[in-house]
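Page 47, continued from p. 46.
Same chain as before, 328 aa.
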Amino acid sequence: MVERVTGPDSPMSRPDGPTGPPSDHVESLPGTDASAISVEPTDPLAAAGPLRDTTAHPAIEITPEPVIHPDRHAAAFFDLDNTVIQGASLFHLAKGLYRRGFFPTRVIMKALWIQIYFRVAGHENAGHIEDARSASLGFIEGHTVAEVTDIANEVYEDSIAERIWPGTRAIAQMHLDVGQQVWLVTAAPVEVAGVIAARLGLTGALGTTAEHDADGVYTGRLKGDLLHGPAKAEAVRALAHEHGFELARCFAYSDSFNDLPMLSLVGHPCAINPDGRLLAHAVEQDWQVRDYRTGRRAARFGLLGAAGAGATAGAVATGLAVRRYLKR
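Result:
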């Protein structure tokens, strides 16, 4: 099951301390396994993250900017990892949980390997999806929603805020400035997605929902499936139906070929920091392409496909280094 966390349409002041959406304000999202949880506009969590100077990360222009103008029937949907932030939000959360003694190193090592596999291979099978489910649940089983939400706020401050892609943030702000809703759509836990969406002043987030009991303690089970691949498109379609958006007038942004169903669903798809397969497809379909990776010319010259050649060696090296990295 996925869960959406809603926030304000415009940034507010930064919060004085960690907080989060009330877990008792839950409603179902018709047509999917998704459920909704609202964030009050006055909640101090609903604060803008830093909007940095985008000149330090010049975009590689391939096609003109899409036309973004006031349109109440249009909305923008953003993938999170490597689209809005550099790297994997789940790994940043796991690092924060690890430092607080939530789980042993082997759990985060498994999660890291799954993340590497997804990014390099660009596809997955049922076994890998189940491994991802188990690894993500292993982070939080036995802990409370309040604990994880508080840590997600700390992780945002410590690790995520400085990794927001300024170019992507600027595009999201363009949509907000003309009155369009802007949603994160991610396989990351909804607690993390909701914190990031609120801190950036976005409308809300669709994220993976882990089950918790009446006391707010995670059970170690998911409600439904990870919000990944085709499930993202299903959630976007349901949200569009609920809000009266016309998908042909909507926008979607992602870095991953795995998000092709979501990108193909809307009238204005855009590949941001694309992997090799998505880049090839975007060029073939004449989609918008943006690459904000400093010093990278992969989007123009099609070099991303070469990344797979060193994938195994890179994964091994990363695995050997992760213990040291986690202790920083």
